[in-house]
Write a structure and sequence with these properties.
Distance between the termini: 61 Å
Number of helices: 1
Mean pLDDT: 86
Low-confidence stretches: 7-20
Radius of gyration: 19 Å
Length: about 180
């Protein structure tokens, strides 16, 4: 048994594999322009990060984080927006993503298109975090000089078509544009 365990450790070390590879971007804090999360267990790598615009911030207006990707399981483009309005962002702080009408103004919105029932016509549905279905955004780094914000998030949103939508393992490391 001891020889087998030694062999297994050697194979793992020399193969250079990640034992717990979650297939999302690394946890960095350098403004690398990365973001990823799991949407109902399916990997989500936003397409809107190739050009600036996925993250906006101003200490007077707040933070806006936008992720966009086409998801076959939804049959449409899926947009996730996380907002923390009218609050200066602080490293080490966790913001509760609750109801759209909370006085803090921290919430998330999930949108996608659904079939209208008419051939070739679809319409967009938007769902928000709420008191019952909420989440959290934790800021791990905020560097105002380099305009970098990095952090983690998770959330739940209730939708008519999909029921509970779970977003897990969210992480981002981005330079932001000022409002």
């Amino acid at each position: 048994m001891k020889i087998f365990l030694s062999f297994l450790v050697c194979v793992a070390l020399f193969a250079g594999c990640k034992i717990f590879n979650d297939d999302l971007p690394d946890h960095t804090q350098e403004g690398k322009g990365t973001m990823g999360f799991y949407l109902n267990g399916e990997k989500f790598h936003p397409i809107n990060l190739r050009s600036p615009g996925g993250l906006h911030y101003s200490k007077d207006v707040g933070l806006s984080l936008l992720a966009i990707e086409y998801k076959k399981s939804f049959g449409s483009q899926v947009d996730l927006m996380i907002m923390v309005e009218n609050v200066a962002i602080e490293a080490g702080r966790t913001y509760r993503l609750g109801a759209f009408s909370d006085s803090l103004g921290a919430f998330a919105a999930l949108s996608y298109s659904v079939d209208s029932g008419e051939p070739g016509r679809r319409f967009e549905k938007v769902y928000y975090t709420s008191l019952e279905h909420f989440g959290e955004l934790t800021i791990s780094k905020h560097d105002p000089e380099l305009r970098i914000i990095s952090g983690f998030f998770w959330l739940n949103v209730w939708t008519d078509e999909k029921g509970l939508v779970e977003i897990r393992g969210g992480r981002f490391d981005m330079e932001y544009l000022k409002y």
